[in-house]
Design brief:
The protein is an all-alpha fold. It has 2 domains: 1-250, MFS general substrate transporter like domains (Growth Hormone, Chain: A, Up-down Bundle), CATH 1.20.1250; 251-360, no CATH class. The protein contains 17 helices and no strands.
């Protein structure tokens, strides 16, 4: 084990890869269109049914490419995989940022490509970013400081998320932008057709910065070069996945938890992705969507501690009943679409997610 006194870098944040890792996570995940995710798709002319199909395609892409991307990281190296992920992010954001609103069929095809590429980028980045950072810490610092690195990362990600949510929703609202311009003595007219692309433009800029960050990373491991070894690595990755799946099928508790998590996550994720449309229906102004998202992010600093106490002092079934009860109550209350006060059950469904046990 390395110690901080004998390590080349006494602080983990002096290691270039650690700083780049934090920057990458913030840039890759802080997307300005998140607070208006649903209404952005609908304002492009897509239907709710098409939106649901696109979300299903996105999730399926992640599931199908998660394992192959892990094997690919062992073959070509983690840095190259992260560079690939950010390049794909640039492309997937770019194609919807600049597509004209003309033929609805073409728009759906472009957004379908966006969802596939987005899922591919998520799968490619998953694990490779943390692996390259942890390896750098183990080689050049004290691996016992990894928890501190993750703590600082969570803080920066929270800040990035709050900024992106607040600004993304504000610049989507043409009325708010016109009021801001009038405050500074400017007479500028904005239309929804114009402002709906502003969050995408900002996210596109972040994608470019994320790409530059990955180019500066250093991959400490040299990728294997023989074709036989590559084939062996791929076979081993799929073999481990198969063994894990068989173990789950033979373990009732694990299977129950995973099935509950899948059912619960599927319902809640659909509600969350449609939240901006729901906010519209309960008469909330679009400029407040980001504030709501930022408030939810701040709640995330408190609720996990409550969830931890529940898991430490009660059996797993207790958490399952709490999750099911709060989710059901929130969904029933949301079905009434109460103006303004309908926000309360929506917030319940957004934050109750932390109580659910999820498959790892």
């Amino acid at each position: 084990m390395n110690t901080s006194s004998s390590a080349p870098y006494p602080s983990p944040f002096l290691i270039p890869n650690i700083r780049l890792f934090i920057a990458f996570k913030v840039l890759f995940n802080s997307r300005f269109y998140y607070p208006v995710f649903t209404i952005l798709f609908l304002d492009f002319g897509l239907t709710v049914a098409q939106f649901s199909i696109l979300n299903a395609v996105w999730a399926a892409t992640i599931v199908l490419t998660e394992v192959p991307s892990g094997a690919l990281a062992d073959i070509i190296g983690r840095k190259r995989l992260l560079v690939f992920a950010t390049f794909v992010m640039i492309f997937e954001i770019g194609i919807i940022s600049f597509i004209p609103k003309t033929n609805p069929s073409i728009i759906f095809i472009v957004f379908l490509a966006n969802r596939v590429l987005s899922g591919l980028a998520e799968a490619a980045a998953s694990g490779a970013d943390e692996a390259i950072a942890y390896d750098s810490l183990a080689a050049k610092g004290d691996r016992e400081q990894w928890g501190r690195v993750l703590e600082v990362l969570m803080r920066f990600q929270s800040i990035g998320f709050i900024v992106a949510m607040s600004i993304g929703a504000a610049i989507y609202d043409p009325d708010l932008l016109e009021k801001i311009c009038r405050f500074f003595g400017l007479t500028v007219a904005f239309s929804q057709e114009t402002t709906m692309r502003f969050p995408l433009y900002l996210t596109f800029i972040l994608a470019v910065f994320a790409f530059v960050v990955t180019l500066k990373m250093e991959d400490l491991e040299t990728a294997p070069s023989t074709a036989g070894f590559e084939t062996k690595q791929i076979r081993q990755a799929f073999s481990l996945t198969l063994k894990a799946g068989l173990w789950i099928l033979k373990t009732p508790f694990a299977l129950t938890v995973i099935l509950f998590g899948m059912l619960f996550d599927g319902i809640i994720r659909m509600i969350i992705t449609l939240s901006s449309q729901y906010y519209r229906m309960i008469e909330l102004p679009e400029s407040t969507f980001g504030i709501i998202g930022s408030f939810v992010a701040m709640l995330g600093l408190v609720i996990p501690k409550m969830a931890k106490k529940i898991t430490e002092n009660h059996p797993p079934t207790h958490a399952l009943w709490i999750t099911a009860g709060l989710t059901t109550a929130g969904l029933v209350a949301m079905s009434f679409f109460w103006p303004y006060t309908g926000l309360i059950p929506a917030l319940i469904n957004k934050r109750v997610e932390v109580y659910a046990p999820k498959p790892k």
